[in-house]
Amino acid sequence: xxxxxxxxxxxxxxxxxxxxxxxxxxxxxxxxxxxxxxxxxxxxxxxxxxxxxxxxxxxxxxxxxxxxxxxxxxxxxxxxxxxxxxxxxxxxxxxxxxxxxxxxxxxxxxxxxxxxxxxxxxxxxxxxxxxxxxxxxxxxxxxx
Amino acid sequence: xxxxxxxxxxxxxxxxxxxxxxxxxxxxxxxxxxxxxxxxxxxxxxxxxxxxxxxxxxxxxxxxxxxxxxxxxxxxxxxxxxxxxxxxxxxxxxxxxxxxxxxxxxxxxxxxxxxxxxxxxxxxxxxxxxxxxxxxxxxxxxxx
Lengths: 144, 144
Hints:
- By secondary structure, chain A is an alpha+beta fold.
- Chain A is 17% helix and 46% strand.
- Chain A has three helices and ten strands.
- Chain A has a six-stranded antiparallel barrel.
- In chain A, a hairpin with a 2-residue loop joins strand 1 (3-4) and strand 2 (7-9).
- Chain A is globular, with a radius of gyration of 17 Å.
- Chain A binds chain B through residues 5-7, 23-24, 26, 28-30, 34-39, 41, 54, 57-58, 67-71, 73, 75, 77, 80-82, 84, 86, 88, 109, 111-116, 126, 132-135, and chain B through 5-7, 23-24, 26, 28-30, 34-39, 41, 54, 57-58, 67-71, 73, 75, 77, 80-82, 84, 86, 88, 109, 111-116, 126, 132-135.
């Protein structure tokens, strides 16, 4: 187990599993030279992160052809436990109706009503994951 | 009620309330010319976002003196409802022991064991919030 800055580094299969089993993530983009983060509901489809957007939206403009960050986590405030996965990669607008059909078939419906007609796809070039590890007073290592 | 791209824009008091009442947020920074997002547990202290970090960490290096993004949300997958708040502002490392004491008094303890000795503070220069609004088939507007 690799520990870095007090956090356990997840192996790639666990990171991809967390990514595959979450439904809400956050996209980090640059808008007007300023950083921004937007939550999206998404699916992992053919190994890539996909989510709905609308063609003229600020998010789809910022994400088109840019390298973006995408993060999911499952933090639990009650016991201070949690894991997170960070994806970094190029994003693109996908106009292929087959991808839209596949996304809907995978249960990816826009949370927002109407006007979400475009799919944005993030290719996960870099994937990294971290887990909070607590060492109990008795010694040894315990992780959630 | 202002609607933008299918989302209701929160007024500033509601955005600040969501920020004040959440405990886990995500920080968006640039690291080695690439975007990155990290979850942190935080508090709103004297109107600013504060969280623990360690002096030599990658996050504190990236956040020192930079303009960063900070996001909180309360999305609910079951009923496709949710709100999010985006903060953008300069961040700095705070070495004032009084701030550390105040943060601990406000219940802000690092989730991660040991080696979290520095406080990072984000000044919320820009605050914006959005809410998903669903229009029921019968017409009218219903929001969660």
